[in-house]
Write a structure and sequence with these properties.
alpha+beta, 7-stranded antiparallel β-sheet, elongated, single chain, about 45% helix, 11 helices
């Protein structure tokens, strides 16, 4: 190992060790209800500290380069990502969603550290870096003023199908087994989410019990609340997080869990002028985090991808493709 590589590894290991210590602190059972990795303090403060640390311990010749101050913080972030996935501390899906936020905050931390280093030349203000390292711990009590009440959102999708209403509706109320070749989920497949398998309904009408069955043991229990044959079907959705296998979804994004839940779904069939129908599928879901301004984008994309996938399957079957 060359001396230069050795110095690099030491420089990277310091912020990575800091990140792992913060992760352990924020996952301690006695304080987990207050200090959690889903807090603003962790998701903003920890990557900021990672970026600050690597630049703080870098030679001044490197710090003088703005590109270095911006990009170097990404290296320990990616090392931290790798370690948490390898040791199953966090799931891949959760990391993919939070990675853009981590990279931006780490770069900001690197730029702030670079400004401090350049102002003081070779001097390192250890009091300042101590404050930065404890920033996540200080932020959490302050963020309690931000409400974390559940907010409701809508995912609205539709597709035009050139087929009779009766044929479309038959594929709506009951969805026979979806083969892998029919599955067109993109974002959900990339994130490693369970894919849809089939949907079963005991009877078409109000009170009918429906099961939406996904891979990896994920099952949604649904009850029909409103029904008009070949026009509309609304159903509640119940996902028991305790019945979902631990390996199916990351604990931070499990349906019916502490942060995310799907409430209901609705199919509506609209005849089109000139033949065929437009099939609407929309759902309501809730998020309960202090980061809803960021999380709702991902949740919306995921819900739309799931719904678009189902609509594409129904369209292909109705049109004989």
């Amino acid at each position: 190992m060359t001396p230069r590589l050795k110095r690099w590894l030491i420089r990277v290991s310091i912020p990575v060790s800091y990140a792992l210590l913060m992760w352990l602190l924020f996952n301690l059972n006695p304080i987990r209800d207050f200090y959690t990795v889903m807090s603003v303090g962790f998701l903003f403060g920890v990557p900021f500290g990672i970026g600050y640390l690597i630049v703080f311990f870098s030679p001044i010749a490197s710090v003088e380069k703005k590109t270095y101050r911006t990009m170097a913080p990404w290296i320990p972030i990616l090392f931290f990502l790798f370690l948490t996935i390898v040791f199953r501390l966090e799931g891949i899906a959760c990391w993919i969603m939070i990675l853009p936020l981590f990279l931006v905050c780490a770069s900001i931390g690197g730029l702030v550290a670079g400004r401090d280093r350049l102002r003081r030349h070779q001097k390192r203000d250890r009091l300042r870096v101590s404050i930065v390292l404890l920033l996540p711990v200080f932020i959490v009590p302050l963020e309690q003023v931000i409400p974390d009440t559940a907010r409701r959102y809508t995912a609205d999708t539709h597709i035009d199908i050139h087929a009779p209403a009766a044929a479309i509706w038959a594929n709506v109320v009951r969805v026979r087994t979806i083969g892998e070749k029919e599955d067109r989920g993109r974002l959900t497949r990339w994130l490693g989410f369970p894919r849809p398998i089939r949907a079963e309904l005991d009877h078409a009408g109000v009170g009918g019990r429906r099961q939406a069955i996904f891979s990896k043991g994920l099952v949604f229990e649904e009850v029909v609340k409103d029904y008009a044959d070949e026009r509309r079907m609304q159903f509640s959705i119940d996902a028991d997080p305790h019945s979902i296998p631990a390996t199916t979804m990351d604990s931070h994004i499990v349906v019916g869990g502490e942060y995310f839940d799907v409430l209901d779904g609705t199919y509506e069939l609209e005849p089109l002028t000139g033949g065929g129908c437009r099939l609407h599928l929309y759902s309501h879901f809730t998020l309960k985090t202090r980061l809803n301004f960021y999380a709702h984008w991902w949740a919306g994309w995921i819900m739309q991808d799931i719904q678009d996938n189902i609509l594409q399957v129904i369209k292909g079957r109705c049109e004989g493709r």
